[in-house]
């Protein structure tokens, strides 16, 4: 309590009346009288008998001024809160439900509006969907821990780390630009990661009290948290048995150990998206590890491994193993030639695919794609709606890169709802009437090549979750307010 308030409360009634009259005389001063008060105070200071008395008088005036300012601000907040509680059309419970749909940044701003809104934002439901993604490092472990503790058992979603560059995908099945530009993206990623202030223990709050906060977590997205290692990630996943949507981008973790952790702890997973911290990374992924993932996480319908060195038999094991798989993304991965495409579409796995992204796969062969499209024309893969085989230099052949082909006319006639994205920017000519090359400049949505699907198709798992936990793409460029 302010000492002046304490003295006022302890004062006798006559003294209180004197204080009220003194305060009232100040509040009734006009603008001209305020100027006179300024000169009057100067005269009093100058008339003081000593420097010590002058200093004491100035200090008292400053203290009295601060008390009046604080009292005025406090009265303003109280009045605004009472006003808001009267005119705000919703009660506290409904207000909390409204605040639930706000992103983390907006919730914190709302809490600073008035006491009424601050009381509403203390409800854990307001922090059920934590989004602390930033373009530059502004979030530390304390901020993350505070948000998780505020959410408690109501926590459903966490998005944490550094936002990818503007031309990179944000945990969706949307391809990167092209391989020749990936080196620039890697450089930017390294620069951002070097500044990251989150450590390997940034999500330890999920594991406290027996993992109460992480027990009902549905969605976990982690981007470019450089210090997050395999042991820390495994500990986090062990506290999240209800996880449905897992996105890992740019973390220095081994793919094999990540698969083991997911297989062991996240049996309800429906969407798994992993993007390597470095394009072309080799993690010695074994068939046994893939089989364990397929067996322990049978509900996965959206699967992405981007930027890794993958063999055809590994991809085939995964795609055919997940019996409910509708979307796959192996963009920017290397080593595989597309041989797995020949063995898809039978009774076991692959026949439910709707979206397939093979963008910038440098060893993807023209012949394999040709055979696959022939199978599509023959009536196989009836549910497939979109295929992306874009590559800067076209598809690979035995003698190097090739001006690639797309039998557009036959595909459009046989499958009018089937769309292809096949942009080869380095190839600016047409090969023949049968094999056609489409340069990127001719692939706008308004061009004659209307069969192109130029915007990547996202297959987020939040569609499968309760609508209460859907993502609305909130962004957080500035989060200084969270540290207060």
Automatic annotation (TrEMBL):
InterPro entries: F-box-like_dom_sf, LRR_dom_sf. Residues 438-484 are annotated as: Disordered. Residues 475-484 have a biased composition (Acidic residues). Signal peptide: none annotated. Residues 439-468 have a biased composition (Polar residues). It comes from the Eukaryota. This is F-box protein SKIP17. It comes from Heracleum sosnowskyi. The lineage of its organism: Eukaryota, Viridiplantae, Streptophyta, Embryophyta, Tracheophyta.
